[in-house]
């Protein structure tokens, strides 16, 4: 916006910390309309308001410009009349647009720009909005008539720009490229700075959509190097942020995204500010700058809410998830609870509300309120079903079941696991890994409570895991089956399954889990008065595996007990001495001596 006749100063963002710049946006005034002192300043404010879809404000700013100092300058007046006619046309009010078109045509005639006046009088609204198919045919014919053997003309550039908009939406960016490129070349030759900036902004986006990323960066740099308003600058910064993000240059992407958010925020382009801040939030999270990410999400939510966009719901959800990832559970609860409550009503977005309730459940679980969490997840499942997201509903029930099981609420856990299994088992549409989880969870729960039908679920899980799971998952299912068999009093089968699980864990390169399975098998053998076999397995776990000290303590303790059962006191004493040394070493490591 800074130019020869402009009076609104554009602050080019500096090198202040991202967090400080985001805080400034969060606390910036948001409702008052800015004032300009000159007609040129009102042009910029009108353009920014129109770009931000605040059409009433745009029209009011342009009207103010027509009576402001500098309004007698023909170029200022022509721009203001174009803005006013364009705003009303975009709002579908051709009747209100027509007088401003007529005034502009008359002024062009007074200035001796007869051909431009004739073209605008002939085409009228076609130059002010996206033309339809019939209008595009007319524009094509006019463009041909205006072709003076390649000589540049404002009229032809204007027509080509409108044709490019139509081609973009009707045929795609490749079709728009030659049209907008020619328009830019003409405007550059004619030194029409203001019109050139808008055309180059369009060209940069077309280049981005056709994967000409370096060309898009170069074009955007041209726009940013010229005096132009904040909305255009915000758009170019956002384009550059997108390119750098896609090219895995996160630091450059973050720098451009914050500049875009600042420009959009200052000019009231709420949707653009929300998008730029959301991009910055994602980039910051990927760089482990979680505090910055939270601030960026807050800016994004604030801007979306100021613009009254429905996207604010998803942005609030992202903010809540970011807080959860950071372990800020109390703050996450506030955000997600407010979001859930805000969405109660007749036109609820069931999918988003379900996700908000899932996050809310995770937050209150960490805040030691598990019963609330189960309630939230149960409600979430209902919303997911209303949104026809059966897989998500199944996951919600499985989460609630796992929490209930951890609280020894067997009846509640069985209900949720059963519902999760019913929803996961969708025939041809079944997600095999989710079905595996449901069968595993319900099967284990039933066996733990001495219901042998649980083995059927575990056996089915075993068949699925061979085809769809990993080696480690196969080992895990087998290990669960071993423990379930023990709960059902089938010790011999349990030992065989536990030793099989140990081999499978070892094959999956998990020595710790393999040793744990062996120690479990040995413990069952000891309980069955098969001390000699138990001692052998305990010794294998302790001596043949690379395991943690905690598991080594368990293995040595079990081996001591087995040796004493076999009346091998000398051997038991040796192992017990090893065990005592290990425990003393661990105690010293946990409680280092204080310095005198």
From TrEMBL:
<protein>
    <submittedName>
        <fullName>Tetratricopeptide (TPR) repeat protein</fullName>
    </submittedName>
</protein>
<dbReference type="InterPro" id="IPR011990">
    <property type="entry name" value="TPR-like_helical_dom_sf"/>
</dbReference>
């Amino acid at each position: 916006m800074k130019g020869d006749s402009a009076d609104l100063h554009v602050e080019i963002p500096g090198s202040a910390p991202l967090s400080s710049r985001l805080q400034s946006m969060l606390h910036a005034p948001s409702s008052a309309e800015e004032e300009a002192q000159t007609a040129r300043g009102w042009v910029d404010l009108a353009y920014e308001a129109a770009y931000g879809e605040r059409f009433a404000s745009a029209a009011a700013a342009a009207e103010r410009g027509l009576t402001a100092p500098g309004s007698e300058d023909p170029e200022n007046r022509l721009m203001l009349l174009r803005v006013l006619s364009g705003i009303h046309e975009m709002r579908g009010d051709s009747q209100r647009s027509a007088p401003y078109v007529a005034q502009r045509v008359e002024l062009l005639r007074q200035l001796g720009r007869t051909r431009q006046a004739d073209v605008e009088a002939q085409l009228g609204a076609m130059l002010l909005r996206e033309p339809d198919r019939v209008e595009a045919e007319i524009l094509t014919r006019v463009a041909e008539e205006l072709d003076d053997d390649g000589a540049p003309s404002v009229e032809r550039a204007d027509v080509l720009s409108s044709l490019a908009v139509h081609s973009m939406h009707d045929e795609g960016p490749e079709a728009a490229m030659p049209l907008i490129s020619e328009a830019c070349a003409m405007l550059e030759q004619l030194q029409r700075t203001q019109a050139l900036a808008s055309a180059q902004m369009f060209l940069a986006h077309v280049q981005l959509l056709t994967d000409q990323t370096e060309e898009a960066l170069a074009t955007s740099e041209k726009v940013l190097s010229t005096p132009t308003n904040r909305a255009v600058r915000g758009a170019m910064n956002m384009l550059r942020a997108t390119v750098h993000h896609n090219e895995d240059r996160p630091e450059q992407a973050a720098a451009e995204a914050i500049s875009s958010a600042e420009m959009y925020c200052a000019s009231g382009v709420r949707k653009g500010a929300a998008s730029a801040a959301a991009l910055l939030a994602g980039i910051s999270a990927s760089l482990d700058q979680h505090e910055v990410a939270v601030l960026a999400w807050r800016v994004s939510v604030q801007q979306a809410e100021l613009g009254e966009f429905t996207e604010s719901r998803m942005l609030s959800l992202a903010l809540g998830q970011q807080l959860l990832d950071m372990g800020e559970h109390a703050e996450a609860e506030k955000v997600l609870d407010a979001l859930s409550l805000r969405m109660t009503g007749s036109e609820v977005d069931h999918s988003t509300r379900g996700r908000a309730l899932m996050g809310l459940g995770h937050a209150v679980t960490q805040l030691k309120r598990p019963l609330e969490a189960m309630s939230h997840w149960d409600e979430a499942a209902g919303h997911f079903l209303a949104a026809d997201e059966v897989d998500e509903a199944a996951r919600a029930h499985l989460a609630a079941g796992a929490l209930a099981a951890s609280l020894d609420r067997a009846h509640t856990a069985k209900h949720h696991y059963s519902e999760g299994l019913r929803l996961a088992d969708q025939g041809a549409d079944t997600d095999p890994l989710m079905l595996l989880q449901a069968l595993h969870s319900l099967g284990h729960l039933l066996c733990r409570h001495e219901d042998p039908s649980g083995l059927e679920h575990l056996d089915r899980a075993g068949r699925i895991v061979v085809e769809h799971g990993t080696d480690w998952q196969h080992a895990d299912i087998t290990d669960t089956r071993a423990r379930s068999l023990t709960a059902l009093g089938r010790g011999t089968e349990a030992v065989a399954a536990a030793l099989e699980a140990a081999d499978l864990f070892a094959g999956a390169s998990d020595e710790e889990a393999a040793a744990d399975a062996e120690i479990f098998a040995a413990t069952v053998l000891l309980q069955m008065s098969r001390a000699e076999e138990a001692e052998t397995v305990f010794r294998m776990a302790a001596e043949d595996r690379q395991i943690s000290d905690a598991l080594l303590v368990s293995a040595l303790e079990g081996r001591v007990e087995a040796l004493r059962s076999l009346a091998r006191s000398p051997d038991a004493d040796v192992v017990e001495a090893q065990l005592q040394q290990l425990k003393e070493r661990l105690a010293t490591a946990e409680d280092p001596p204080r310095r005198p």
